[in-house]
Design brief:
homodimer, Glycosyltransferase, Maltose phosphorylase, domain 3, 10-stranded antiparallel β-sheet, 7-stranded antiparallel β-sheet, 19% strand, Beta-AFase-like_GH127_cat (chains A, B), hydrolase (chains A, B), hydrolase activity (chains A, B)
């Protein structure tokens, strides 16, 4: 499927892409230009102006500050693809002009090393994010070219990539290193797919293949550097190679370790390369790592990363709800990876995870105004503990303002503005259209048998009625429509009608396959009635023992203090909680709330300062109310929990 | 009651004092002399030799290393009081000789500032523990004098205290500061009580009174020091005054904050001063803080300190079981404080807490061999999480070897070797003997009406039969015997007999008061039948919601993987668990185990990598086995939990 051929038209999602277009992108532009009152300056544009010689001054912000402008341009590229906007195009073109001016003669582009440490290029691949920034700018270049047809940034980044290719590799005289933060690997694949230039694919593969070889490049580089670090003064201990997944060659990795964003960005590139090069070892590594991450290290919300120490995975089944990390960027990276796995092989489990992360962890990270974000997405919050117990300081009960230097908000922007690209894939032989996500949209495909337009309408996430209307400008066309059977639908085979008549179908890899010669105007109805379910966690996930979560369709629910009082830990589910659901149009912009029977511990008979006393089973019945997780934290700050005692 | 008048003779406790005498004290002496193979050197003795000019070299160990020798000498003093030992006396006398040689002309004594930073005395009261080390050496001097009658160390420390008195105070020209780690305050009270010198009491009171006055001494000192710290290079931010409880004048403090050991050492001195000076404001502060600590910030094991960040209190009802700190030293400090509160007013609640901390948190910190210790005493352990989740690295599943530099092990040694001093107090008017702890012992009291000897026999913690035999060398004596009614006894009034005949009694402040003219040979039987109880936590303690702990008498129980398999979180209590108890002579040296009915989640039907699925209530009945908490971690490392789901 080519880019730009899907447009979202959806009651639920259109609001989000519009928010990104009308609020997030303009707001971030102000932030990049240090014009947001009360926010720390970003310095991003200023750094480029200094590097370009247009302004005097010192480098500001983080060593990877350039990537903020890159992510913004990438989001702009996606946005312009579906919503042309001359004014925004002008702003972006000017920024690209500036980037061109900041580029060095030899193609090198990085404002930190140009302004602050000239002559120190490539001396600290471990910490300095040079190739990472290059990767983000390549992604921006590809998105902007695809969205606008304009080549300027693409040319800049091809020049830079050519230069990088001349510096890195196994050939004599080249640096045999790779980046401390994976990102350029997946970006170079995009650049290859856009330009057709094989060298970019080869360079990406070099970075992936070289990673983890012994002796460690990072350890040797650290020795050469005099054992110093970009981040702290003085000498530091040898690099933790698990942190950036260079502890083993990637094909030998089976368990996700280290910084979770680095990990999923790398797995994304691995899956790309497995598909494009047919590398069985890479594919098997992807499949093993997928099973590990999504089977043993993922929260029910699609969050990954169990500890804020190193923003990292910890180990199998260790999924604490209160000291969680579950960084927004990590779930976004998981979505990137899931899409690549779907391209490798259309299996519904990949889309199930993609949808889980999207509707819960990622969507919940942004406030309804598009200006406040969670970086950490907890499943259990006690605001006083976040404030007063340092082990939970990273868990914020309130979304934070988008400050100058930030990774998650622009990542949300680029994902939501390209969400149209996540709905469908087309099989290699161009005979099957896979519908992974049920999001209202218009899509056009050039299939083996001709041009097909699909108009999808969906009532998700509130109702499970999905319709596809087939338009065939060139007349009847044979092709297979493959509709995902979501893992949250568990009442047998979903009903499917074509032209109002029940249609039988076979299920392959979790997709209902409807293979026929379609006529113009055919409609397919795909019925996935939503049921509210109690969900249990695997018994080895200690943190969820004796508890249940509520899920309805793709949405995970939570209970908040605003509806249920505090402490929410006092609440438990009745044996038969008789869950009832209703659409509350006035609540948080409208949502289906779930109510049920429970009981609360009766604290009335406890003296204030008697901490322990003989057990008396004193509970009183209580009706609880749960709201979709993605909407939590949009009222007064309070306690929240996804998992409820039963 | 004078010191040295109680000797423990108890089936349960004698083993511990013997362990301290025969193993802990000799082992620590080797450690102080850097002779423990495989352990980091302590440098403690070596530092004193260098300071005394007997050896060349550099200071080694922590800035407060002197306190290790002090705590050892204090334990030796207690041990010699009840078990004279010429060989040990010789060793200690030689060490004291060395200390004397290390003392400066003007009385100053601190090997760090003598050897490493001469001329920098008193320039970093915040970090450098100078007065803290002095305090520990004063405690040692008092204990050694009381235990042996030898004055040498007492004289050394009086000289140092006189010098400190000449340096600190509100008078012009004096430093108006106080120590970053409270300790000298309680030590000076002991010195006053031993020597009768009022200046020491006054100096202690000065340190307590001055603390928290504005502007902050520590903040000004930090400015004068150029905003540096002993602990890290470069400049640091302003001191966190809550950390060392100097955020407010002590009389205005109501909530325990900051480093928990510093806090309870300070509260101990405050209670001493309240008693000795009749200061109502101090007493009220002690009572407020006591209610806060023991009512809202104490674990069921008597542990305090909810976070390892700063080894600190967090806030009311925040008592996480798995990321807990509950440092051994903090519970020991709580015991010190409780004893002072009992001296202020004999109320059983103080002794209840003392007993809770002693039998659970403190006793559990030491291995049965006396050579391995927990610093952190968790209520829930998953060894893999301790190893792989950095937020739990401080929680060790195995007791650690006693390394050179350590605070908790010598603190355990000095507490256990002076435990005889915690059993009784005598009222101010010398007419009532309070029995706070039920520990077999022989005690002699000089009461208003004459000399009384009490021989206590106790079957605790396994059986609740306690007997007192009164010996009156001078014939009949009228006095009141006040026996604590423990808060774990909840079946009405315990039965009490005198000479085999039931005796009625009144209860005052939680003590059964038996007031009579006693005859030589009278025996009192005090029956506290032990019942195994399920205990619940206050509903505001979120971490324990829906759970129960098992307690029998003073002992809190726990379940271990060794008896119950893993994960222990899979286990829950039956509605009617039918708890049964039996003495298992072969288990961990003999203990009462508790068994009961529960159920475990059935993991057999779960695929390995399916983390979430619709709830099915699949449990199977299981019989669980709980052991006393203090014995946990003495078998193969495994999971442990005090709180069980119900």
């Amino acid at each position: 499927m080519r880019k730009g051929q899907v447009q979202i038209r959806d009651d639920f999602w259109s609001g989000y892409s519009e928010l990104v277009r009308k609020t997030v992108i303009p707001y971030q532009w102000e932030a990049l230009n240090d014009r947001v009152e009360g926010a720390e300056p970003s310095y991003a544009i200023r750094n480029f102006r200094i590097a370009a010689g247009l302004e005097e001054g010192e480098f500001g912000g983080m060593v990877f500050q350039d990537s903020d402008l890159a992510k913004w341009l990438e989001a702009v590229g996606y946005s312009l693809a579906t919503h042309p906007d001359p004014e925004l195009t002008k702003i972006a073109d000017d920024a690209i002009e500036l980037i061109g001016q900041a580029q060095r003669e030899d193609g090198y582009l990085n404002t930190y090393f140009t302004v602050k440490e000239p002559g120190k290029r490539w001396t600290n691949l471990l910490d300095a994010h040079e190739l990472y920034c290059a990767g983000h700018m390549i992604e921006a270049a590809v998105a902007y070219y695809n969205g606008t047809g304009k080549r300027k940034l693409l040319d800049i980044m091809c020049r830079f990539s050519d230069y990088i290719d001349s510096v890195f590799g196994t050939e004599p005289g080249k640096i045999r290193g790779y980046c401390g933060h994976q990102e350029i690997e997946l970006a170079l694949v995009k650049l290859y797919e856009t330009t057709g230039e094989e060298r970019y694919l080869k360079l990406s593969r070099y970075f992936i293949d070289e990673r983890g070889s012994k002796p460690s490049y990072f350890t040797e580089e650290w020795e050469r550097r005099g054992r110093t670090s970009h981040w702290v003064q003085g000498t530091v201990s040898a690099p933790n190679l698990e942190y950036n997944q260079s502890h083993l060659p990637v094909r030998e990795q089976s368990v996700a370790v280290g910084h979770s964003v680095r990990a999923v960005y790398m797995y994304t590139a691995m899956a790309d390369l497995a598909r494009l090069t047919g590398d069985a070892g890479l594919r098997e590594a992807c499949e093993r790592l997928w099973r590990n991450v999504t089977g043993k290290q993922m929260y029910i919300t699609g969050g990954i990363g169990s500890t804020h120490h190193g923003e990292a995975f910890s180990f199998d089944y260790d999924l604490p709800n209160d000291t969680v990390y579950a960084e927004t960027c990590a779930s976004i990276g998981l979505i990137f990876w899931a899409r690549r796995m779907l391209q490798l092989e259309a299996k519904s489990e990949y889309a199930d995870v993609l949808e889980r992360a999207l509707y819960n962890n990622v969507l919940g990270s942004m406030s309804k105004d598009g200006k406040h974000f969670f970086y950490v997405n907890p499943l259990e919050v006690w605001p006083e503990a976040s404030a007063k117990n340092p082990g939970k300081h990273h868990v914020k009960p309130v979304r934070q303002k988008w400050f100058g230097c930030s990774c998650c908000p622009p990542n949300v922007a680029r994902l939501l503005s390209s969400l149209n690209d996540y709905i469908y894939t087309v099989s290699e032989d161009a005979k099957t259209v896979y519908a992974h996500l049920f999001i209202g949209s218009e899509a056009a495909f050039d299939l083996a048998s001709g041009r097909v337009t699909l108009r999808q309408t969906s009532e998700l996430p509130w109702n499970g009625r999905v319709e596809f209307r087939v338009s065939l400008p060139e007349g009847s066309v044979p092709f297979a429509l493959a509709l995902r059977v979501p893992n949250w639908f568990q009442s047998g085979k979903p009903a499917l009608t074509v032209g109002g008549k029940a249609q039988d179908y076979r299920v392959e890899n979790g997709y209902a396959i409807v293979e026929r010669t379609w006529a113009d105007g055919d409609t397919v109805e795909w019925l996935l009635p939503l049921e509210t379910k109690l969900v249990a966690a695997h018994p080895l996930i200690r943190a969820d023992a004796g508890k249940a979560a509520i899920q309805r369709g793709p949405l995970v629910y939570c209970v908040e203090e605003a509806d249920n009082g505090a402490p929410v830990a006092s609440l438990s589910l009745a044996d038969e909680p008789k869950l009832a659901e209703r659409f509350d149009a006035g609540l948080l912009g409208g949502c289906v709330v779930v109510e049920g029977d429970g009981q609360v511990d009766d604290a009335s008979a406890w003296a204030d300062s008697v901490p322990y006393r003989p057990l008396e089973k004193r509970t009183k019945p209580a009706r609880f109310k749960a709201i979709p997780y993605y909407l939590w934290g949009n009222r007064e700050p309070g306690e929240m929990s996804v998992w409820l005692r039963r």
